[in-house]
Specification:
Layout lengths: L7 E4 L5 H12 L3 E6 L2 H13 L4 E5 L5 H15 L4 E4 L5 E2 L7 H29 L2 E6 L12 H20 L5 E8 L11 E2 L10 H11 L4 H13 L3 E4 L1 H13 L1 H13 L2 H6 L4
Parallel strand pairs: 1-2, 1-4, 2-3, 4-6, 5-8, 6-7, 7-9
Length: about 280
């Protein structure tokens, strides 16, 4: 019997992208899969997709920025599914912009979904795992939560916070026989740019959303790649996994080796406009 066979899994934000890939990978591995999303049509489509695989599956519309909705979801889930073995807190959004381009509403939007959404899931679901003294948690963070990339201020702040949440819980939950892994995707071909808020401007002073989306489409790997890495992290109890490592692993190593050198290199690249040109952004 595999590590996943017969277990009940939750994947939040599973209507598309990495969440959808995680749900499919868990179903293929033999799990019962429960998904959430904020778009009803996506929920229906993914649940039908999972059931065609022969998996037992269910879906719920949940706004993960709302503590009340997550609490209501938890009550329904435990009534209908009894317990959770694998919790994938994946719901998240993208946001690009420099400090002067960000509104306070943008900040709140990103932090409410990326950070508070994860906190609410930990608050309402993990204590039930603790009672059973078993379970695994996968937090979808980002490589942007491991080091600094200019032009993604609010997004990076949220993902650094998620990494803080995960690294602390990985230690705390070990006393309850609960494993926790952090998935740090790099450049993935998903809807994160299309559905996100991109406040950066291109060379004409217009939104840089289209060229950034084109960059992610051209250079991004399929979401199945980080999903596979996430399942391996759960099975092997790996704390942090960057996927794919080949894209940004060197940045993580450089940051760990010498933050001062990292800052020096990226200050130079930012001042000279190399990063801007890569994404078609106005300097």
């Amino acid at each position: 019997m595999s590590f996943f066979s017969g277990k009940t899994a939750i994947v939040t934000g599973a209507g598309s992208g990495i969440g959808r890939a995680l749900a499919n990978a868990l179903a293929d591995a033999g799990c019962k899969v429960v998904i959430t999303d904020i778009v009803e049509e996506r929920i229906v489509e993914v649940v039908e997709e999972l059931k065609r695989k022969g998996a037992e599956a269910g879906g719920y519309r949940v706004d993960h920025t709302s503590a009340e909705e997550v609490e209501a979801f938890s009550r329904r889930f435990f009534e209908e599914w009894d317990h959770v073995d694998i919790l994938c807190s994946n719901a998240g959004v993208g946001c690009g912009g420099r400090l002067e381009e960000m509104t306070l509403e943008d900040w709140k939007w990103v932090l409410d979904i990326n950070l508070w959404g994860a906190i609410y899931m930990m608050h309402y679901f993990v204590p039930e795992m603790m009672k059973r003294r078993q379970g695994s948690v996968l937090l979808t963070a980002s490589d942007a939560g491991l080091f600094s990339i200019p032009g993604m201020l609010a997004y990076q702040t949220s993902k650094h916070a998620v990494m803080g949440l995960g690294t602390t819980l990985r230690v705390e939950l070990s006393n309850h026989n609960i494993k926790l892994s952090m998935l740090c995707p790099a450049i993935i071909n998903t809807n994160i740019i299309c559905d996100g808020r991109i406040n950066l401007r291109d060379d004409r002073g217009e939104s840089a959303k289209a060229p950034i989306q084109e960059y992610y489409t051209k250079h991004g790997v399929p979401p199945s790649v980080p999903a596979k890495a996430g399942l391996r992290a759960l099975e092997k109890d790996i704390g942090i996994v960057i996927s794919p490592w080949s894209q940004t692993g060197w940045q993580y190593l450089l940051w760990r080796l010498s933050p001062q050198l990292y800052f020096g290199i990226f200050r130079f690249l930012w001042k000279k406009g190399f990063i801007h040109k890569m994404f078609g952004i106005q300097q």
